[in-house]
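User: Could you check the structure of this?
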Amino acid sequence: MVTHHSSATPWPRGFRVCSVYLGREISDLDVDVSQVDEEHVAGPSDEPTTFQYALGTNALANPTRAFLYFACLSRRLPSSTGEPVVLLTEVRNTAFPTADPKTVREAHLVLAHAAAVAVAAELGCARGAGLPKKPVLRMVSGPVPKGGDGR
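Assistant: Sure, the predicted structure tokens are below.
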């Protein structure tokens, strides 16, 4: 990640943190980290199963995916403006869990948080990128239509 950030090379789609295989040739669960532009930090979702949480810069989760955005100011990720770099940890679960949706959603967020904390520590992000050592899963909202006008 550091090599890609400090060169003129654009980041690939993401860097794989880990994958879990449950007897299939394709992974059942993946955890990736990528750099995103600040304006691409997702807001509330129209998706009826996606909920927003107060964690990192923003966090969204549903029964098959979780997204945790966080801002990292690190000497290892130099920025021409001195602004933090926005990173995203994403959990994708292709096994289609059948447990309680809230339990699965929050389990995905716990994984995304663990990956974000590890990446922030490895990069030496100032103040741990503002991430708590243990995730506090406080739901901010359920699905909110973009624009907030209900359309």
